[in-house]
Amino acid sequence: MSRRKTLLLGTIILTGTGFLTRIIGFFYRIFLSHTIGATGMGIFQLLSPVTSLCAAICIGGFSTVMSRTIAAKNAVGSRKNGFDVLSVGTSFCLCLSVLAALGIRTFSEFIAVHILGEPETAGMLDILALSIPVSTIHTCIVSYYYAQKKTGIPSVAQLLEQIVRVFSSYLVYQIMLARGMQPNATLTVIGMLAGEVAASLFTLIAITWESSKYKYHFHPNVIKNNFRELFTLSYPLTANRICITMLHSVEAVLIPSRLRLCGLSNNEALATYGVITGMALPMVLFPSALTSSVAVMLLPSVAEDQASGNDKNVNRTIEATIKYCLILGIFAVGVFCAYGQSIGTLFFQNKEAGKYLQILGFISPFLYLNSTLTSILNGLGKTRLCFYQNIVSLSIRILFVLFAIPSFGVKGYLWGLLFSELTASILNITFLKKSASFSFNAMQCILKPSGLLLIALGISFAAEGILENFLPKGSILNLILVILIMGISYLSFYLPTVRRLKN
Asked: Best-predicted range by mean pLDDT among 13-27, 60-74, 320-334?
């Protein structure tokens, strides 16, 4: 199979799984919004700084460097050397994750009260700590398959994790009701642990079978050289990710406290935080199943192109990435601005979620673009530039959290998100311009999609008026059909381009 077809097939598999996983996650969030409420979702989201920081410390740059190194070794036919890299990298990351888990369980009360500012999270941190080592195993093994451009195992693991998470959370919810307990955010942490255990077991079985197929046997004498190579390449990236995650954590912890400064009670602040991070932002990120899949496949591909000196392929990759991310992002702007209010009200039964969706919709093009461009920069080995870009954009967000939220409320934070993502996109393109000779066609990337969006919106408004004669006005089915018609109208103009790309 040709390189282009391998990349396309891998992206299709990951995208299909990503959309299916997000659909399940979408209904899961609806379930959570109805069972633990916006406040419960806000409490659960407070745990994200801890999980993110542990991932940065334990896996950090190792998973990215492992994928890049294995891909480079595959390019010169060293399949067994790839297993050596996986074994050494996973062992080191697992040791770090066990230490992190012990640290969280030991200081869970202190973290909950003095860092997160919510004592109720202490018990959840004890459960969350157990998921760190199993999540590390899962992530490291998946990085091997991405390096091989084999997306089947990672896709099944991702889907299995989501299904087990949802089923386990629902089971805990039923047990709580049966015992007369009020369902709370604990059920989400238990579901997360169960999902990680299932995914890790599956990937362990898969990699064991894969290594036996190649009759691989680990030899201790490979540890020194491989560890030196991995550590040398990954420590700058790991340090970058820890620094970036710390800034993310500061932002996440500050938001509820700054919301309280603008007149909200503690419950209201947590509820607002839960609506934004647990309802509105995941909905905006829903279409990113496609861009995330592309980003995962791009890193090893760009690394191989760079290693083989194929600059022409690198330039084509950057041009296509910018074009199609903007096409998708501009469409998302239209959907969320026109129908965000209806989405929030009908699916989450929360008008605030709809209002935030309409504002957050404007960050879609930059959000989708940044994930793929960052992956390309990492593939080119420009990790320091990625670090600079992240530091600048996160600093902007924190400044808005500190100074805009007390004065303008939650809108101040949403403005900060928009400005930071726009800045990150400009920096990413600027950095890539210095590393590659690609061209940018504003007509094809911005003006044409914007014009086609207006046509698609007109068609959707007309369709909405017609459908109201057959379906109840404001129904979920009506909304889904209208957005589907809008999407078909918009994308139909690009079918000839897709056929040419496929050929």
From this structure: 320-334
